[in-house]
Amino acid sequence: MSMKNDTTLKKLTIATAAMLTGCLTIFNVLAPKTDFSANENRYLAPFPSLAPSNVFSGNFDEQFESWFSDHFIRRDQWIRTKADMRRDVGAIENNGIYLCKNKQLIQSFTNLDQDNLNNNISYVNEFNDELKQKVNVMIVPSAAWGDSENLPAGAYNLNEKKIIESIKAKMPDVNFLDLSDDMTAEENLYFRTDHHWNEKGAYLGYEKICEDVLDKEPEKFSYEKVSDDFKGTLYSKSGCFDLSGDPLYKIVPENDNQVTLELEDGTVLHSLYVDKNLEIKDKYTYYLDGNHAYEKITTSVDNGKKALIIKDSYAHILVPYLAQEYSEIQLVDLRSYRQAASDLVDDDTDVYILYSLNEFAAGKNLAALW
């Protein structure tokens, strides 16, 4: 091929690529937009401000890249195609989610911010000392430990049992409720498409509390299926949009316990369950209406016992069990609660700090305990 023809071919290739890129950009700009991705369960990046201060500061380029990526034409199909291709070539994970043999998705646990974890341990110890009563601490391992028998060959995770044992050793004055052995003694204690434990896993937590805090036998419950299509955060993150959903269950006590649930804005519900949330993507909010800074539960249990639970969302599916043990339960989420949790405690209050290991290790809000 002559040099002239070679130059012409290069120019034609560059022009074609530029035209395709330009057309794709125009299509992306003009295509209908949505603010929320149901599959990914998150709000998408907005179009960046065209204000001169934003453009010339250098922020515009990064914000435009995020917007372009989030609103790419047929984004969900591309995400699913990537996940399918990775599975087809034998990959065991996608976006940090292990693709397990029984169609379970498990979040990898490969990193630990030890300094942040040590800080959180110190905050809990100081809180325990301030209250002058033993705080009950439950750190729940993830499915990477509790359902480890379902992991694909070659999957690597940190040893959560050792991490939890080290946390326990650094909290000598609290009542530490260690579930790491209990969670490996039974199978399928977590949702297949979500990072939370399910009703079976939460029941193990309830049994541990009955044994080590309440000194009693656990109550009996039945389970009423309310949905079979819960597709959780791991479904959203993995791109495995062909997977079927998980069942969700209403946890029904044997006795007729009357409850009210008061939210921080004054809304009062007469149930621990919100049926309308079964119609949305995040069906886990069926339990206690999801994340709130503060919630107060009153029950018809006539024993005068109270509990304060400082928690992440792992507590939501556990509370229907605990509602059979307390006349009053207060729940605090330090990610948005702006008052001192210690002000909610009196001598008749059992205090719990209940977190998943992931959140306890990485969270930045435990300094707000008092």
Descriptive overview:
There is one protein chain. The protein is of the alpha/beta class. It has 12 helices and 15 strands. It has helices at 3-30, 52-56, 59-70, 75-88, 114-131, 143-146, 160-169, 182-185, 199-214, 233-238, 319-322, 357-362, and strands at 36-37, 42-43, 93-94, 97-99, 105-107, 136-140, 175-177, 221-230, 246-253, 259-263, 268-269, 294-299, 306-311, 328-332, 349-356. Strand 4 (97-99) and strand 5 form a beta hairpin. The longest helix is centred in the first third of the chain and has 28 residues, at 3-30. The radius of gyration is 25 Å and the shape is globular.
Compact description:
This protein has twelve helices and 15 strands.
What attributes characterize this protein structure?
single chain, 370 residues, alpha/beta, eight-stranded mixed β-sheet, three-stranded antiparallel β-sheet, 12 helices, 15 strands, 19% strand, globular
